[in-house]
Each structure stands twice: as C-alpha cells, then as structure tokens.
C-alpha cells in the first residue's frame, strides 16, 4: 500500500508542476472522479469544455469497459460514424491531434477516442480513462523499438509501478488525468460486461466544470515540486 501511495504522489508531483488551470468532475453512479485537463493540449481541453457546456455528455455512459485496459465513455464509434454517413457532404467533425510525448498513457490518463484515420484526429464526444497494467523493462524496450520513441526515466518508473498502456502512446491524444477518485475509476473498470464490453448495469456520468475557486482549492491539495 505504501509503494502505491508513493507512486501516485510521484505522478501528481510530475503534473502539478505544469500548473494546469481547468478541472472537471465526473459525477458517476459509482462515485465522483476529478480530472485535470492539460493546458498543453488546448484544442482538446476547450472542445471537451465546450461539449460539457452544450450538455453533450449529460447522463452519458461508459459503454466500452475492458478490464485492465480502458473505460470508454460518450458516444460509440458506430454511432458517430453512422450519423456522419447521413451527411456525406459535410466535413468530418474532429479535433486535430495534439500528441505530446510527455503526456502518456499512465494509469488514470484521460484520452480522446478516434477512428483509424491517418491524422490521428479525435472524436468530439468520446473519451476514455486509461487503466492498463504495470510494465516490465522488456515490454517498454519493445514499445520504444517499435515506435522509435524513448521514454524518460520518470515515465519508465511510472509505467513499471503504477502501470498504463504504452502501446497507445503517440497514436492517441492524452489531454488530462485523474487527480481524485482513482478508486472509483477502478470500480468502473471492474464491472461485469457482456461480449461487446458493455457493462451489464448502466454506468452513467455527467461532467461538471469546477469553478475557479474550486480549482484553486484543489490545486492547493496537490503535491508541489
């Protein structure tokens, strides 16, 4: 238990130094999860906040839950793509990729879903929470060789202790992370699902943007460098 706490503190120290400015609380029927949105990915940050303001995520569902991998919420790929087929003359609505190597798929990372497009652009209304599992040096070495990318010592330590999904790095945009409610995220990722990875009992959420006062109070609680 002590080592897990130390690792989580290490992760928070790493990101707190960025002095992120926007936070969102996912109010789920399993409890609350608080997300910090990265200022390094402003297009995704602002698109998510805009979608929340429009109510596009009100009473959304975690509709694809794969244990020890991801918990996906919002619209399904099929729903988005079928709707787009109805208006083929319209340009596809996507968020341009904002892939920052320093922002990686550690456990608790917030990512944006996408289809298999060459630009790696993201859907407007699909998010996922990374879960994954602890990685070995050999596994990380293989990922580095495959992607032509080298992890920093801090990133390797986080992947080896806290865990995550390094095979998604550099292919999907990570634009935030969990700072409170990791136990709720774990509970969601552990629910029974059917053969299509849909939870047998609906897991819903409504995101609420924290006020400046709430955000400032939360930042005070996070470890600083």
UniProtKB/TrEMBL annotation:
<keyword id="KW-0697">Rotamase</keyword>
<keyword id="KW-0413">Isomerase</keyword>
<feature type="domain" description="PPIase cyclophilin-type">
    <location>
        <begin position="27"/>
        <end position="206"/>
    </location>
</feature>
<dbReference type="InterPro" id="IPR002130">
    <property type="entry name" value="Cyclophilin-type_PPIase_dom"/>
</dbReference>
<dbReference type="InterPro" id="IPR044666">
    <property type="entry name" value="Cyclophilin_A-like"/>
</dbReference>
<dbReference type="Pfam" id="PF00160">
    <property type="entry name" value="Pro_isomerase"/>
</dbReference>
<dbReference type="GO" id="GO:0016853">
    <property type="term" value="F:isomerase activity"/>
</dbReference>
<dbReference type="InterPro" id="IPR029000">
    <property type="entry name" value="Cyclophilin-like_dom_sf"/>
</dbReference>
<protein>
    <recommendedName>
        <fullName>peptidylprolyl isomerase</fullName>
        <ecNumber>5.2.1.8</ecNumber>
    </recommendedName>
</protein>
């Amino acid at each position: 238990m002590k080592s897990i706490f130390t690792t989580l503190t290490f992760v928070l120290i790493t990101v707190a130094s960025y002095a992120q400015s926007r936070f969102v609380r996912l109010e789920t029927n399993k409890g609350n999860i608080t997300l910090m949105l990265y200022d390094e990915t402003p297009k995704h940050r602002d698109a998510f906040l805009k979608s929340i303001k429009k109510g596009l995520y009100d009473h959304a569902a975690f509709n694809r839950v794969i244990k020890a991998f991801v918990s996906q919420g919002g619209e399904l790929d099929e729903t988005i793509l079928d709707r787009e087929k109805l208006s083929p003359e319209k340009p596809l609505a996507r968020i341009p990729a904002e892939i920052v190597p320093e922002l990686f798929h550690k456990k608790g990372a917030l990512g944006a879903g996408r289809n298999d497009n060459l630009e790696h652009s993201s859907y407007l209304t699909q998010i996922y929470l990374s879960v994954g599992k602890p990685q070995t040096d050999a596994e990380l070495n293989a990922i580095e060789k495959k992607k032509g990318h080298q992890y920093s010592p801090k990133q390797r330590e986080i992947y080896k202790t806290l865990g995550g999904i390094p095979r998604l790095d550099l292919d999907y945009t990570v634009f935030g992370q969990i700072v409170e409610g990791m136990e709720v995220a774990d509970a969601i990722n552990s629910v029974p699902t059917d053969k299509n990875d849909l939870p047998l009992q609906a897991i819903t959420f409504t995101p609420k943007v924290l006020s400046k006062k709430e955000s400032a109070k939360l930042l005070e609680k996070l470890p600083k460098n």
